[in-house]
Every structure is written in C-alpha cells, then in structure tokens.
Amino acid sequence: MDALDSSGIFSADRQAFHRARYEFARRYAQGRSVADIACGLGYGSRILRDAGAKTVTGMDLCRDAIHYARSQHGLGGITFMVTDATRISVSDSSFDVITSFETIEHVPSTYEFLTELARVLRPDGTLIVSSPNDWGLTNHHCHSWTPFEFMAEVAAFFEIESVWEQNLNPKGTASLGIKHWHKETDCSAECLIIVARKLGRI
C-alpha cells in the first residue's frame, strides 16, 4: 500500500490508518537521522522527511517495493535500500530514531530483530514499533501478542517510555485514532504502538 496514493485499491480510511503511525512519529523525527525498517513502498519515509527529519533511510527486503519507493518518494535526504531487518547492512549506532510499523509480528526471530535494531540505534536513541493487538497467527504473522506480551518482548532490549493504542473503529466500539493505552481497553485496541529508548548496556 502507498498510503499517499489516492488512486490505490485501499480505502481512504485504511490509508489514513497507516499514515497516522508516521504522523505520530513525526514529533520524534525532527532534526534526527531516522531508519524506517520495513518501509514498504516508502510513503512513511517521505512523511518523516517532510516532517523535518535530518535524513531518512527506508529499508525493506522486497526489491520491487524499494524500486517503487525510489521512483515515487526518493526525495533529497531520503535513501532507500534492500536489506534484511535481522542483518541490516549499516554500521553500529547509525540512527537517532527507528520506526518499524507492523513488522515485528512477521519476523520469525524477534530476538534477532530487536538485537539488530538495538545495534544500529545510537545510545539514548528512540524506537517506535507497532504490532497488531492479539490478532492470532496467520499465514503471514509468526507471532501474536497481548499488550503485556508485546511489551515484554520490547522491554528485553529497550526501556519502554510510553504505550499507545490505535483504532480504525470499524465496529464503533473503540475511539478513533491513536491515544494512550490503558489496560482497561486492551481488548478493543486494534494495534499497539510502543515508544522506547535504547538501554545503555546494549
């Protein structure tokens, strides 16, 4: 999905749902070097750059997606590269901020994934990561977590600063948009977003 392309096959509501995570991340990106892990078609990397990120490096395993991203969203200050999120081909401590949305549940080894994110993040850097809330396993999802399980995965490598929930509100049972997560609403949240800081020992 290119959530900036209004001519696509996805509904405007679903596109806005995906854009919202990057719009949420803009406050952390201004003036900083950002890695957008599993950037897909690159629209989120463009949102972050337009929001004032110093540089953005969009990374994805799919060559076709990166080709599209370069052709449609390859602005100055944005670099797109093909790489595996568990073996990122950059030096240690390369980025101030990492965004990785709806990715971690697809990766067989969360240990390898989070270890690699910690490696390329600078000391005191910020990770913004999201995952569906307890959707169950699918052909594409290797993991399914409740909120506390998801937090535990991230907390093994990062210090959690805040937890947020996101809802498209298809059934009218939860608040629209992104708001602070509370355990009383953990069943209604569609997706969870964690903002965390790199632990000094990693």
Structure description:
This protein has 202 residues and is an alpha/beta fold. The chain has five helices and eight strands, in the order αβαβαββαβαβββ. It has helices at 12-29, 43-50, 63-73, 110-120, 147-155; strands spanning 33-37, 55-60, 78-82, 95-100, 121-132, 158-167, 177-180, 191-198. Strands 3-2-1-4-5-8-6-7 form an eight-stranded mixed sheet, with helices on both faces.
Question: Mind telling me which CATH architecture of the domain at 12-27 and 85-198 this is?
Answer: 3-Layer(aba) Sandwich
**Poorly predicted runs of 5 or more residues:** 171-175
CATH class of the domain at 12-27 and 85-198: Alpha Beta
Query: How many strand elements?
Result: 8
Nearest-angstrom radius of gyration? 16 Å
Strand content: 25-35%
Mean pLDDT comes to 89
Tally of DSSP helical segments: 5
- Strand arrangement, largest sheet? 3-2-1-4-5-8-6-7
CATH homology group of the domain at 12-27 and 85-198: Vaccinia Virus protein VP39
What composes the largest sheet? 8 strands, mixed
Examine the coordinates and then state which fold CATH places here, giving the name of the CATH topology of the domain at 12-27 and 85-198: Rossmann fold
Shape: globular
> How far apart are the first and last residues' alpha carbons, in Å?
34 Å
SS-derived structural category = alpha/beta
Residue share in helices? 25-40%
Order of helix and strand elements from N to C terminus: HEHEHEEHEHEEE
